[in-house]
Amino acid sequence: MNATYTVGEVSEQTGLSTHTLRWYEQVGLLDPVNRDAGGRRRYVDDDMNRLRFLIKLRSTGMPVRDMVRYVELARLGPATVAERLAILVEHRERVLAQIRGQSVARRILEVHGLARLSLFHL
User: Fold this and answer.
1) CA–CA separation, 49 vs 33, rounded Å?
2) Is residue 27 very low, low, confident or very high in pLDDT (cuts 50, 70, 90)?
3) Distance separating alpha carbons of residues 41 and 34, to the nearest angstrom
4) For the whole model, what pTM was predicted?
């Protein structure tokens, strides 16, 4: 028998709030979650695996709209692999641009010296 998890257990294991878990289902990031006889959500391992993947995407700063699109395409199956890859590649480029921008900011602080910058008065 497959393991099932309550919304509280999933929240504890993933670090996502119960509100966020319900919202992920509402916006389509998760398929409708199975319910027990009392109507309470019961997540399965497939849900947990998808959540772990979504958490990783979110940690990179991927917008939820892109995550939703990715999941929609994944539901359509292998024929959408190229489109899903394009979403990931485009997001990687945005992340790399952000890293470059932060590197410039770091160099400004290093080259101009934190001490000299702190002496500047307006």
Assistant:
1) 13
2) very high
3) 6
4) 0.81
